[in-house]
Amino acid sequence: MRVIAARSIVAGLIAVAGCSSALVSSPNADAGGDTSVGTFSACPPAGSDCAIMPLGDSITDGFGTPGGYRIELFRTALMAGQHITFVGRNVNGPATVTDGSTTTPFPQRHEGYSGYTIDPAGGRQGISPLVDGALTTFHPQIILLQIGTNDIDLNLDVANAPARLGALLDTITTDAPDALLVVARITPLNYDAGNARVEAYNDAMPALVRPRESAGKHILLVDMYSPFVADPSFKTSLLADQWHPNPAGYAVMAGVWYQAIQSFLR
Length: 266
Known about the structure:
The chain is α/β, with parallel strands linked by helices.
């Protein structure tokens, strides 16, 4: 199983259309073990956009920085001469993104839902009932999934959160068997008690991904947590509030996602 993480963050300030300056991250892969996606071609041939569905909660939505990690992920692909677009029912983010001297319309669509949990619980709505419709409507070729922050923060059925996530992984891989599913260990909260629960949830994910990968599912696990906590001041340098990254944090996320999918892009 491949677990991809950002081990080093190369910082540089650039202008982001529609939001404040952001740190650009350049992660190094930490890949180990075999993976069923080694020869898998998720995206269409060169010249066609690869349809990417960002799926999750308000962090996917980009709360506080409309567009969130999607801005720098799109810009990074542009700079590499790769063709991507984002798909989903929701819309936000800047109108354009600038890559050097070139300004390109930003694909604003996504499947990020503020306040949502994995499943409906504790009076919160969950993303699991929405997945069937999203996948059959948009037919993504890559799915970027980060979910569970609200479950963990609110302490909602935390003991069963990994099992509930596993059921969601099965729904996605059944509905979209030809897509690449990239699952993220979630980003940290800004308080230690919450992060103890985050770490337990994150540590359960390899056991969810490994058997599905071994069964031939196109699935990867990435680590969003470690690049944040590697910075001793992450609670102020990379987080905007109790839950959400700031522009620098969203850029770190973009780097981790890109490291995972770059070899599939055309």
